[in-house]
């Protein structure tokens, strides 16, 4: 039987973690966060806190990844801890909203960035954005169809370009004549508590933007069967890769807030055709700088889209292998050694999402849904420590039980506050996950469940 090829090294895995995270969020989300909070210190604090929470999540996940280094990530963890139904609902949620919406949102920003370079505006612009986004998904799905090594090589080349570009942005920003440390202490006239009725409500809603920026740190677990020495390399890749991204994000947001006063960022939030990072670099380096950052956003969003297509398709492959998804998705291409049908199904649904809603609706919805399952994984680490203390753990989470409990508490708070402050997005996400129930009952009744342990 054709199997997935185990070809990803530790360094490649670390770069895939970074590639799966660094996308559009760090360039776009600072403006709506500024409008929500009205304070540069609070905006920066949101990015720092989201980074700490994401790192705590990565360290927590690393214990699971070391114990269960198979294709499917959380789907495999949940099947072991909570049973097939909960595992299926995670996988179905990944297919209907969490992972496919990530692909759709990233591709959408790619289209926006490309049009900003050409200066296209007006009624036809949104149609053009969706056509470009759909074309990008088709192209990158084809790249990943052809093989994991080819797709990983493309991702590695693009992330090296991103590292160089981040250094250039920081240099230009801190040299900008319009930059000032006083920008970090200014606030808008409107009190921050007006937006959601409380400072905590505004902080949670704004943090959705920061968490979207960090979204994707867990995806490396999906390709456990394709990583060399996964029990050792998966935990290291999660911790190191996420730490690199936290440093990059804090640096870039400090540059934005240094160059532009908070009221200018708030104004940008009301003009969705403008991207905050582009306007910041325009202030620092003029037209050439704006062109440079626009090209950088094209690079990072295409890279993150590529990583988001490469890794999550393995979840749907693992589900199909267990008889809990469309049977054809379990097929491994005999020549390319990829879950070819799962990649095609993922791309098809991602394109549908591109045409179904706005960028911010998609990202808020997927962050909410994702954190339900992030919390379930943190709880699972604690449950397994109690129920199966003798199971082999190549890596044990640092600071246990404080780190997983902290991450679980943050996940619970974010889920509850999103239900209160953004009920439409939250309930839509839950509704999409619940649509999987009749499919689960059908597949369970009509198809035998065969679990393979590679």
Automatic annotation (TrEMBL):
GO MF terms, alphabetically ordered: L-amino acid transmembrane transporter activity
Keywords of the record: Membrane, Transmembrane, Transmembrane helix
GO cellular component: membrane
Main location: membrane
Localisation: Membrane
InterPro entries with a match to the protein in the record: AA/rel_permease1, AminoAcid_Transporter
Gene3D superfamilies found in the cross-reference section: Amino acid/polyamine transporter I (1.20.1740.10)
Annotated membrane topology: Multi-pass membrane protein
Regions that span the bilayer: 7-27, 39-64, 85-107, 127-145, 157-175, 195-214, 234-260, 341-359, 365-385, 397-420, 426-443
Superkingdom, taxonomy of origin: Bacteria
PANTHER family reported in the protein's UniProt record: AMINO ACID TRANSPORTER, SOBREMESA, ISOFORM B
The protein, known as: Amino acid permease
Protein source organism: Spirosoma endbachense
